From TrEMBL, chains A, B:
Organism this protein belongs to: Epidermidibacterium keratini
DNA-binding region: 41-60
PANTHER family: HTH-TYPE TRANSCRIPTIONAL REPRESSOR NEMR, TRANSCRIPTIONAL REGULATORY PROTEIN
Gene3D superfamilies per record: Homeodomain-like, Tetracycline Repressor, domain 2
GO molecular function: DNA binding
Domain called HTH tetR-type: residue spans: 18-78
Record protein name field: TetR family transcriptional regulator
SUPFAM superfamilies per record: Homeodomain-like, Tetracyclin repressor-like, C-terminal domain
Entry keyword annotation includes Zinc: no
Amino acid sequence: MLRPVNADGNDGRRLRGNRTRGIVLDAAVNLASEDGLEPLSFGRLATQTGVSKAGVQALFGTKQELQLATIAHAARVFAAEVIAPTDRLTPGAERLTGLVERWIEYAETPLFSGGCFWSATMPEQDSHPGPVRDALVSQRDAWIGLLARELAEARSSATEDGQLAAFQLNAVLSAVNSALRLGEASASDRARDTARQLINA
Amino acid sequence: MLRPVNADGNDGRRLRGNRTRGIVLDAAVNLASEDGLEPLSFGRLATQTGVSKAGVQALFGTKQELQLATIAHAARVFAAEVIAPTDRLTPGAERLTGLVERWIEYAETPLFSGGCFWSATMPEQDSHPGPVRDALVSQRDAWIGLLARELAEARSSATEDGQLAAFQLNAVLSAVNSALRLGEASASDRARDTARQLINA
């Protein structure tokens, strides 16, 4: 294997470690999107990636750390693909509409092999209190918070309960993801119509 | 074991068979509400119920038949506990409000050990076309259809898209189930508020 030219041995090892970590986490996010976070194991990821089981274990230490790193990785990919492209849009209706469109795209052509990472992992974890569930809840709250802020910005009247509207919009987006996986292509329009109704409420 | 007094041997066997079937299906619904329909197996149900593995297999034949019978059993329990109690209510706003209240109760104090049967099984099956997914979809469509009918009856104006409103209400009910499992007790009011908004739309 070539050593990076401008790096001493330590940096080279660290670069390879980071790259390996990324490969294992990509595989972990895809596996979790299919079967949830519980079946994740050092052995299964080793088989999937060709990295040795000891190598995978050395990167994450415990299964819980692996699960937390997998959630953080999914969140980074989600933020980069769904949220970041709307950064340049005007806050409010325009940005909210953009977020809904990016979500629809995310649901229509899933980033992860099993479809929506959050839909696959939350029902599994929601009855198991602990750091893993907390990490999922914190991602969900951040997403609903983002919808609430953009909704508040978008609406002419500030009298409506923005948190309720954000909860409703998030519920519909999740249901659209599920409906699309059942082959109901028209579901995407339900997300658009709901966003429009809530913006104009 | 006592033989039923007013039954010949055949009827006695059939009665025992029905009772055993009910015991196995109760266990199957609870298991599926926790881990989904895939981990259901004759062996696991035998261990859970004390019925012999051959006995369980004789009742259902194939794993797919077992899964379909489990869905039908969950649907019967759901209909008896959530839908039937609203039969005597006036169609429209009153009955819809009753359905929402029964759903909240269903979500707050789950009928099944793992919580909502549909939330646990649909994400697992939605990417696997076949009779099992079809059975789940048909239950979901019947439920959304019921909400749509009551919404149409409840609303003063018939101009709104009742199917969209039913989709939205179902989405919020599912999200409330999930939020309750995350400990957000206030989520129940979001279901009530959403139903009220949609009725008055």
